[in-house]
Amino acid sequence: MKKSILLILLTLPLIYSIIKLHTDLKFYLPVIIILFGIILKYLLSSLKSIRLWIQFGICYIFLDLTFHNIDFGKFIKSFGYVDLKFFVIIIFLIYFAIFLRGYKWKYLLRHIKKISLINLFKATLVGFMGNAIFPARLGELLRAFVLGKYEKISRITAFSSIILERIFDGLIIAGLFLYILIFNPIKNPYFVKAGITASGIYIILVLAIVIFYFNYEMFYKLFTSIKFLDQSYREKILKFLNAFYVGLHIFKNLKDLLLFIILTISIWIIYIIETYLFLKSMNLIATFFQATNYSAIFLSILFTFIMTIGVAIPSGPGAAGPFQASIVFTFILLLPQIMKNPDNYNYIASFSMFVWCIQIVPVSIGGLYVVIKDGIKIKKIGKS
Q1: Domain annotation covers residue 213
Q2: Are residues 112 and 28 in the same domain?
Q3: Which domain holds residue 174?
């Protein structure tokens, strides 16, 4: 039954392609051949990496939804309108935000040992590279393993601190959504429901982690009392819970927690500035939004929020597909009439790809440099 369900999920991109075959046979035929090969391989050898193919299927569907109707000539031409003076500033801000992430990570782990700031930065950079080149944000795991290698600390503890960091990021996302609703309410019901759902999940996760941390002994006793589990499995679970608990010790130090929150807010301010510069780099605020009542701050916050939600969708490397679709969706949400013009759609589609490339390429180059320089074996970490 499980394999049948997984096979159906795997074939969704294929079914989607067949339904749309009549619109663009040349575009879909090679994709369908590849997907048939993947499915055949699955049937013959029962692919262990079934989830990987599902994620690539999601990536394909979103990329198709975004790009299948564009004029590729005009799409390429649109890149010529990029103002390169913003390019260097954006890349600097991307690396500065990564540095701040490494710096604030120190506050999550300082109760374990004094950790080198350069190692925190390098591990964070490699993690962002992993998110860029591996599917489903596997870079977060890579980040924990690399820091464990550098500093000889528990990888589970390092990973639990990353989970906590990302959940606090989620609280900032919830705050951005609240700002959007209060100051410039978007009337689209799907957008409102999606925002409330995403924000609610993050808030519930924070509450769950706080409850777990301050009631750790109760959870520990609960798992020790489970009789149907084999002793070796129970010991592994308890070891994991303990390592996870150690990674949450920032709750004991109010000063560190406050500094951590301030740094988190600072990082998201940088992300909003980046978004503003992206919009300016292709003159989108002046060209597309001059007739609206949206301020530049609101637009930057809105795009930051929706792109973040897009990145959170499990997909291929660098959230390709959902990321571009989220940007195009935002323009359709705000300017539905303008986006009906094919030339405008081509321009925004190229903008979405430009933003994605600038977010992905610099961190990939930086992370690969660290991997090569420090002799980090990605295959070995993957097996672990």
Answers
A1: yes
A2: no
A3: 82-383
State whether 232 and 363 are in the same domain: yes
pLDDT tens-digit map of 34-78: 555 555 555 445 445 566 666 777 777 788 788 877 888 888 888
Question: How far is it, in rounded angstroms, from Cα 318 to Cα 127?
Answer: 12
What radius of gyration, in Å, describes the C-alpha atoms of the chain?
22
63 and 179 both lie in a single domain = no
The CA angle 12-9-69, to the nearest 5 degrees, is: 25
Burial of 379 (0-12, 13-18, 19+ CB in 10 A): exposed
Same domain, yes or no: 37 and 147: no
Same domain, 203 and 244: yes
User: pTM value?
Assistant: 0.81
Q: Are residues 230 and 353 in the same domain?
A: yes
Round to whole Å and give the CA distance between 108 and 160.
10
> Does the residue 76 lie in any domain?
no
Domains in the chain, number: 2
pLDDT on residue 24:
52
From the CB of residue 240, how many other CB atoms can be counted at a distance below 10 Å?
Answer: 14
Question: pLDDT per residue over 120-129, tens digit each?
Answer: 999 999 999 9
Tell me if 77 is assigned to some domain. no
Residues 201, 178 share a domain: yes
